Amino acid sequence: MTRLLGGDILHVVQTAKIFNDSKTFVDLALVNPVNETLSNFYAMMTETEDNPSKERVEEFVHKNFKSIGELDDAEPRDFQPEPKILHEITDPVVRSFTKNLIAIWPSLTRKVSYHVFENPDTHSLIPVQYPFIIPGGRFKEYYYWDSYWIIKGLLLSDMVETARGMVQNILSMVERYGFVPNGGRIYYLNRSQPPLLTFMVDDYIKYAKDYEFLRQNIQTLEKELNFWLTKRTVEIDKDGNIYTLAHFDSSSDTPRPESYFEDIETCASLLNDDEKLCDAQHKQSCTHPIYCQGDILHVVQTAKIFNDSKTFVDMALVNPINETINSFYTMMAETDNNPSKGRVTEFVNKNFRSIGELEEVQPRDFRPEPNIIKEINDPVVRAFTKNLIAIWPTLARKVSYHVIEDPDTHSLIPVQHPFIIPGGRFKEYYYWDSYWIIKGLLLSDMVETARGMVQNIISMVERFGFVPNGGRVYYLNRSQPPLLTLMVYDYVRYTKDYEFLRQNIHTLEKELHFWLTLRTVEIRKGDNTYTLAHFDSSSDTPRPESYFEDIETCANLESDDEKYECYTDLKSGAESGWDFTARWFFHKEGGVSDQIKDIRTRRNIPTDLNAFIYKALKTMNNFYMILRKPSEAKRYLDLAERWREAIEEVLYNNEDGTWYDYDIKTGKQRRFFFASNLTPLWAGAMPDEVKAERGKRSVEYLRKMGILNLRGGIPSSLLSTGQQWDYPNAWSPYQNLIIIGLHKTGDPEAVEVAKELALKWVNSNIKGYHENKAMFEKYNAQNSGQFGGGGEYHIQAGFGWTNGCILELINFYYRDKMRKSKGRTIL
Ligand SMILES: OC[C@H]1O[C@H](O[C@H]2O[C@H](CO)[C@@H](O)[C@H](O)[C@H]2O)[C@H](O)[C@@H](O)[C@@H]1O
């Protein structure tokens, strides 16, 4: 049903204005299953060349929708025509009025009919267990804040059972959706109403003295408030002080389905699409009817016609969307909704193709022998670096004019400037990969390409309010670790282009705002409350590019709700960039599981994410000082200080001398080795006076964990789960984060160990390159030069961030410092 409410049917029917009240249509039930309705719709569209008359739309609606049977009248069991209150009102006029009033309750009582429970997909009504009182008239379902006053009235009418049932219905919404929707229809799921649930419970408890009810539901009340405190707050700077207050802020940027026509009219005179989106701050949902959700995605991806599920969602449409959908439903009708794998392959071959969206490009600023080459004394490393630099043009791409002219038929999100891709199956830009790629480009003197990549990413924030995981529409439901501010730092440090900083500083703020408001949780420790971030995708369906895999992972979960949670955690795991690892897999009581089905990414407060955020806040402080804006600079300094304190109090473990992720549920640190544990060193997220000591203790910790004995590099974890971010895989970014982190502490032993680790990694990369003539996405920590494995796709070569990272280490450890071009450092 979701699809129908978000797509062409809704648009065509509601703009035909066949009902006086737009709500009428979205409250109708479907006569046939969703697929058949869609098929009938597209048949009408084809017959009328996409231009049906009002009468033809009316005919379609009358054949395919009906307005009966979803709600039954119900006599509340606890209704009494003469409750106590009547005997206690002395004024006869008021008494008789009150009696009439009370007599209205039964006429407004409804319960959800069994039709809806049996077949929820053909109704917009959200089924709830208990009878409830509706407002009346066109409002035939429950409404959130109306219920607060209704429940007061019910309690005063001694209708405790009905009142309690209504509260329970609303609590069940929080458990299911994490918040209370505006009302009991799926089209209300993108917004809430003023948060009065806690007060409803308070009224009920006071009246019924039902403290057991309170005990059972207190956590759900917390969950609801947490929604408002994390997803609906803004920070206000007043005279240098920061205040947090709430505002209303729906997460959706399309017309309200129940007032679709009216909203289209309201926004019609706005100039561009972004304005029409009525200043929606977060455009996170992925709306493409083929690449993001729906029957085509489901049928094709579960037929598993490609080895790698990403292949399908990277293909372009041969024909327009409607035609593709139409030909899909024709196939479905011809095969009784059960097409064979061969028939699905035929449909894909006819309707999709995999060419023409990205063009190879020779970067204008590419030079085979940039300065760094001349400044490396070691001949083996110099020759290797030259080979490395020669890889950049093979990874450079620009978006083809096909995509710019007809973006709807591609999943690629068009960007203006050429960019470097990771390589292999990753043919588009990736957010956090770009951070290390840009470092490598700057060290290769490819400033124009680096700047273009930063501009592309900045344009994402302007367009979507955040940086998506990668450059495809199916990545729009999540981000990746926030490194944009630090990319700009490297670019500005290298070029001294302060004008670029001035022009873009607000976009950096906007990106950080996304993380600070939509990805934070509050943690209580003793009497203190700390704010820290976690990964938390906004979407609860399988990842389109790993659809088959996600369905399989969550298949054995019992309820649909558990499956939605599972998909959200998988997407949140992908947001972390560590997809996947035991870091996100939890046993119920908090230990690590080695099973992906136990994924609970959102339960974890990750050290690296919070170290990145701390460093970004500190960098913003620095930027505003450069731009001579002291009050803004102070604001970021204060924020950074608060973050540092939270990292110190919640994530640092003095006994083990390292930082750990934190389990929100048990309120305990996860005391396992992950390469991310040491990232606060790199971010400098600790008081200055303990830096050297932390360096020393980190070396002890690495030694104790056996990490320094491994010949290939630092593994992501010590847990062998078969996942690509677990043992024995070693990933470049974390070599650099740990090596540079140790070096920056200044402790002599840490500086020495950093150097040993760096040389080990450089040697491993060189060995691997000589043996395979390729650079890899990940390596094996046990064996020098061996590439990594595991996970849901084969090892990929290229490889953007590996090349950027190794250049950073070569620059630091092998470049002749005396000859290094002045001021052109980025470390
Ligand atoms: O297709 C599966 C997943 O692939 C990506 O993740 C991996 O590659 C990325 C590009 O190098 C890298 O940023 C990430 O850390 C890797 O785990 C993608 O980012 C995921 O979202 C996707 O589901």
From TrEMBL:
Gene Ontology MF terms in the entry: alpha,alpha-trehalase activity
Reaction(s) catalysed (UniProt annotation): alpha,alpha-trehalose + H2O = alpha-D-glucose + beta-D-glucose
Source superkingdom: Eukaryota
- EC number assigned by the record: 3.2.1.28
Return the Gene3D superfamilies for the record. 1.50.10.10
Q: What Gene Ontology biological process does one annotation of this record name?
A: trehalose catabolic process
The question of whether Cell inner membrane is a record keyword is answered with no
Q: What class of enzyme is it?
A: hydrolase
Pfam families, A to Z: Trehalase
Return the InterPro entries for the record.
6-hairpin_glycosidase_sf, 6hp_glycosidase-like_sf, Glyco_hydro_37, Glyco_hydro_37_CS
- Per UniProt, which keywords does this protein have? Coiled coil, Glycosidase, Hydrolase
* PROSITE patterns documented for this protein: TREHALASE_1 (PS00927), TREHALASE_2 (PS00928)
Coiled-coil intervals, chain numbering: 204-231
Q: Which family does it belong to?
A: Belongs to the glycosyl hydrolase 37 family.
Name of the protein = Trehalase
Its source organism is: Exocentrus adspersus
